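Notes from the 1:1 (GR / supervisor)

We went over the backlog. Supervisor wanted to see one worked example end to end before approving the batch request, so GR pasted a single chain during the call. The sequence is below; no edits were made to it. Supervisor asked that the structure be written out right there so they could see what the output format looks like.
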Amino acid sequence: MSELLAPAGNPEALDAAIGEGADAVYLGLKSFNARLRSSNFAWNQFEGAVNSLHKMGKKIYVTVNTVCEESETERLYRFLNYLNKVRPDGLIVQDFGVIRMCQEFAPDLELHASTQMNVSSAAAANLLCKQGLKRVVVARELGLEEIRNIKANTNAEIEMFVHGALCVSESGLCLFSSYLGGKSANRGMCTQACRRLYNAEIPGSVSSGYYFSPCDLQLIDHIPELMEAGVDSFKIEGRMKSAEYVGAVTAAYRFVMDHYKEDRKGVIAEGKRILSTDFARSKTDYWYGFKNIDEGVSSAGEKILNPKQAGGTGIYLGKLAVTRESTDSERKISEAGRPEPKTEEERRANFIQMAVIKGGSYDPDAGDSIRLHKKDDTGRASHKVRVITTDEKGNRWIDIPLGFSQGDSVYLLQTKSMSKRYKRVLPVDLTPYRKQPGPERLPVLDLTPLSKNELNWFPEGIYVQVSTVADAHVVQALHPVRYILELNADTEYDLLNKDTAEKPVLPFSKKMVIISLDPFVPSGKEAELRQTLDTLIEKGYTTFIANNLAHLAMLRGKKANVIAGQYLYTFNRWAVSFLENQNVMAVETPVENSERNLEKTFESASERSRVLLSVFAYPALFRLRFKLPSAYDFTYFSDKEQMTFKVNSTSDGSFVMPEYPFSLVDKMVSLKNRGWTHQLIDFSRTKVTRSDIKNLMTLMNTHQPVQGGSRFNWKDGFYDPEKIEAYQQSAARREQEEKSGNRRPLKNSSRRPSKKNKRK
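Structure output shown during the call:
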């Protein structure tokens, strides 16, 4: 019997999930999880939940599904030790470093591979199974036959999402939010760039739309086939959703799972009726119903994208006609029954204002959940209405969060009538639950030293990556030590069909060529890729960049040299150590990495000699498995900040890239002097001209930055919510101390320097 796995973003959602028959729940704590913006659980709540659920015969899984920087590894170690003591039923993980650390220090913890790990084939699932993982959460952009194929060819348990929000980008490969401001999806800080309103440059005009905002997934029609295929766990997305949402969706899937054999058609119809209270975005079954992979690539975009659908969700209620400050009595009503805020962010979230909504056909009541959407698309917020007042003119005022104003749109997410009271799961008394992460010190990890000539196939110098054979000819002027050729539909045809003794495809030796493999390896293409790799090796291509665990599995035992690509994320030494155990000693750094973290991860010159460092690239911010719909008749589009991006739709899928490159070309000499002796110039998915190469060489020789270029996260690193929170708390304390007159000024903080100490 398949497991029904529901989200528990807070204790109320936990009650709803269990109350409606979930077999298991998944939740996050205050760090290392991919929904840092949800409320998550405190230590004692989590320990109490584990205890209660185990008594009920239910399971509980913890999300530890973000990548971890080197400076965070000791805190991660303490966190894993804590989890090892509390003993949830499994950890959902993304970072290879977490796997490696658990192998070393907590081998009894059950590990599940997060969908962020981009497992989409049996090859990847089997590699993880051999590393001790029990379950894989497969990528969402897979069809029924692909799921069947994975299940039939692996011993790992298969978990899959069946309902809820979708990512438009292939699982675990989105860099857009990170590019916009360091809020990485791989760090649980996604700002949902896909949901934004964009202006597209179409022939003759500019058109606005939510071009990359996907519909929500709903696979309730396919539950019978998926159960018969042997899927072990059906997962509902929604750790940031309300308890009412969690309860309704759990109830619908529970009903279908339990009763579909009695009357498949009627039971599914009843399940859909239960789901009719889900006022989220329009629904799609995404990659289901296609005859083959090619049809999916051509048509999935039409099923998942709707440019007219606002990034917000729910039934349209109208716009804010007028707003005003809340009164003291209104604030007291709003705060009644709420837990005392523990952070500045929670305190500000409790602030309200009042508003009148006009233009819709339904007036929300107290207890209804609504979603507000700013008219300029700069922000959205979900809110439960608590206060309703009517003035002498008959205007009906409701409470809304601060920051919204006249003209902003309002949507209905849930009505109070849908709410149920569920039996409480958490113990009433949490005082017995006192476990917390301790002060343990993480043992030092030394990377494996390189033996003599171990990486003689990985020489120092400039590496240049391109996506076409024609571009490989153009970039010869850069005199790279190696050419990296992306394996795609075009280059695969050239390499497999045109490489003859009479007319070689490339103007240089095959030993000068590295083949870069696509990070998405769907089950439907797995057998074909195996054959392609075997043929390339037979033809004399010996070096490959692996960007998916499936690549490591396919290349194992072959006469091939392997570099771990940027999508096999190595943000810490423990992740590097995991790859060492797969016999991979050279790595390409993730393009969203920072200088500071890179230097902490690879401290010595010998360690840095193993790293291929990106110094120029047009990073793929979205990677879509499908072609864009025919109506998407544009190449360039821009956001509200006037940042421009480029979209490229091909038979290999679609890619969104920035208009201007990420670039460190002005720092190449200093980087080399600090040990970064392998430097990558990446023209992937970009048409290269001779003038481009000439201009780039000029900038390299004169140590000048690229005009309009981006540093990505190189300088500032990832956005750190904990540092921001600490800063806000410190600022609040200073403000309070100043108001009370107790704050002492810092030494010389308000004085001019004396003449004696004044700087010349």
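Supervisor's comment: The first strand starts at residue 3 and ends at 7.
Batch request approved.
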